[in-house]
Amino acid sequence: MKKMKSIFIVTLLITFLPFAKGQGGQIAVADVSGEWTSYVERIDMSLFYKKSTCIDEQNGISQELILLKVVNHTEHNVSIAFDVALWYDGKEAEASGVDELKRTFLLAPNDDLEGSCGVFTDQSLQLFVRFTDKEGIPELTAFKIDNITLDKYDE
Residue 99: which pLDDT band, with cuts at 50, 70 and 90? Predict the structure, then answer.
């Protein structure tokens, strides 16, 4: 009886664990708020996202972005890397370059990096959604982050 109970528990875990919060499934852009939302939380790192309208009047740019935030929860220098999958108008986008959809960040112990609206800032923590003042341009409808890795490194 004890063996059957163990098999049942393992089967439940295998069946439902992929759906647990923080497993990082596909996110519909329409469901994203302006508050930081957890995509994945682990003991060693966290990844968050939020939607932001970014207006650069000086350069005449008005756009909506998904901003990302990565957090290192360890006492070590780490490299956090992941792949991004993007869906524009419901179709999955293909990378035009080898590493276009790969992101890698170096973080100090207990440090974080946060995406911002700056047009001329590091855009690796931004996902372009749409121009808010233009029509007829494909819009980001969903995104997914996969293959998250964290590796320690010496400075």
Answer: confident
Residue 87 is which amino acid? Answer: W
Which tens digits make up the pLDDT trace of 5-43?
Answer: 444 343 333 333 333 334 568 999 999 999 999 999 999
Residue 114, CA distances (Å) to 17, 71, 90 in order: 28, 9, 27
* pTM summary value: 0.81
Strand pairing category for 112-114 and 45-56? unpaired
DSSP of 22-84: TS---EEGGG--SS-EEEEE-SSEEEEEEEEEEEEGGGTEEEEEEEEEEEE-SSS-EEEEEEE
Q: Which residues contact 150 (CB under 8 A, 6 or more apart)?
A: 42, 44, 45, 72, 74, 78, 79, 80
Closest CA to 30 of 146, 124, 145, 139: 139
Could you give the C-alpha distances from 83 to 26, 100, 145, 148, 149, in angstroms and in order? 13, 9, 6, 7, 10
What is the rounded CA–CA span in Å between residue 68 and residue 37? 10
